Structures are given as C-alpha cells and as structure tokens.
Amino acid sequence: MGWLSLRSRLHGPTSFEHTPSHGTSSKSAIEHAEHVEDVFAQPPEPQYPHQKISIPDDDLPFIPPAIVRNQRSHLQTQGLAWIVVDNIVYDCTTFINDHPGGDTVIRSFIGEDCSWQFWRFHSKMIMEKWGRPLRVGRTEGIVNRFKEPPRYFGSRSR
Which keywords does this Swiss-Prot/TrEMBL entry list (predicted)? Predict the structure, then answer.
C-alpha cells in the first residue's frame, strides 16, 4: 500500500507542499495523487523457517555467519530476532515479548552468540521445551563478545 504522486517542475508549490524555509522555493507541484494498494503483496516466505522438533541439530540447514550477524543491523527493517546458542540459530522474533526475563535480554544478543549467558539461567529442559521449536538452522564462527567469568563452587581457601 502506498501513495503515488506525479510531479511537474513547471508549476509552483501547492498549498499542501512544504516550501523550504532557507530561501529556496520548490518548483514541483502535485498534479495527481492516487492511493495505490498492492493486492498481490504478501509477506515473503521466510528463507529460514522454524524447523521441526524431530530434526536433529546436525541436520538443520546451515546459515552462513554473515547472515546471522546481519540480523542485528536488519532488526529495524526485517524485525527478526535471531540469537545463537551452541552454534544453533534460534528465531526469537515471536517469543521475545513473552520471555520471562524481558525482551532486553534477547535484544542485546540479536545476531550474536549468548551460549554461556543462556546456560547460566536456563536448564536443558527449558531449552527442549521452549528453544527447540524456535530453531531455524545451525552456524559456526559466531563468537560471544563477552569472556565467560570463572564460576566458583564451594569455599575459597586462603
């Protein structure tokens, strides 16, 4: 859907056209404006749809790392929220607003690896129940930008 306008440089600005305030005038005018709706436009089929739960991780389609990383810059235009956990790409676009920890956590890792952060807060059972249906593919070479801090168990000896 959009507006189609035809302009002519022969006429001065019309009453509904903006004239720049810095001293120059616009030489174009709208001769004809028409509302146009594309009745054939449909949302494109996703190139990497969610995969069936029964498909093993090794059989998921491979997504080049550049495509995964580009999701960060394409978030505003495409609206995809892909994250990587253990080289598996998860499309959290539909889940992001339902995430119990809030959408900010997922948004901060779009197009990136968040494996150690994910496993600090989630169990394998949670991944099987909530994550597995969100898988779209596998990748390699996406590195977590944060170094994992050491985990301490038990008492420290001095």
Answer: Heme, Iron, Metal-binding
Contact between 84 and 114 under an 8 Å Cβ cutoff? The reply is yes
User: Domain 57-138 in CATH: superfamily?
Assistant: Cytochrome b5-like heme/steroid binding domain (3.10.120.10)
Q: Give pLDDT tens digits for 103-155.
A: 899 999 999 999 999 999 999 999 999 999 999 999 999 999 999 988 777 66
pTM over 0.85: no
Greatest alpha-carbon span in the chain? 86
Between CA 65 and CA 12 the distance in angstroms is: 52
DSSP 23: S
- Asked if 25 contacts 19 with a C-beta cutoff of 8 angstroms, the reply is yes
CB 68 within 8 Å of CB 140: no
Q: Give the model confidence (pLDDT) of 58-103 as tens digits.
A: 999 999 999 999 887 765 556 789 999 999 999 999 898 889 888 8
Q: Where are the alpha helices (DSSP H) in the chain?
A: 65-78, 103-107, 115-121, 124-126
